[in-house]
Amino acid sequence: MHAVILAGGKGTRLRPYTTCVPKPLVPIGDTYSILEIVLHQLRSRGFSSVTLAIGHMGHLIRAFVGDGSRYGLHVTYTDEDTPLGTIGPVLNELHALPEHFLIMNGDVLTNLDYGAFLMRHTQGTAPVTVATYRREVRSEFGVLDVDDSGQQIVAFREKPTVPFQVSMGVYAMTRETLRRYTPGQVLGFDTLMLDLLAAGEHPGSDLFGGYWLDIGRPEDYDTANEQWADMAPVLLPHLYLSAAD
Known about the structure:
CATH architecture: Alpha-Beta Complex
Number of domains: 1
CATH topology: Spore Coat Polysaccharide Biosynthesis Protein SpsA, Chain A
Radius of gyration: 20 Å
């Protein structure tokens, strides 16, 4: 099984932590970087090879990870001279990728079983399967439903909670889905989703109920470090639980 890890962003929302270090290499709990955690997880779930899509401070990621042998993986690289979006970097490597593969952001902490997720995708017919997570937003106000005239209130809800599903930044992809695009073009996840929906090719949703944290802001990074002592055995059971035994 093969994974493409998107690690080329500037991490501007995570400054000042990313001033001198690319976001995938920021440490969690003074033990592992985010990227190391992901690489260990992929290997433990049956992946044998990884492509790292690098750009901003990519030379540091290349120097740190090397050929991936210390993680039990074969790691190759694709460089972005200019930002190509979420999916764009994959287009340049499409010829070298297997029929089904994983694409994921390099700033995600989750105990999702990446191997089982990819296998579920291969057993279905969706052009791409998105790992999704339940979130909810609670309104600070009473919400009014108004009729078409705008003059009559037809319903009232006091500070309702609105549930929805979000992308976890992890996607199982079928190679044929991306053949319609040209290598080198800018392609975001949003554009891909809209193109597929417009063509009547519905992406799949794989709802996950475990641990997931997108490290995009300083407060997310602080949360990850605060939770690390408890979450390390959950995220890396093959390392922490075996060590305890």
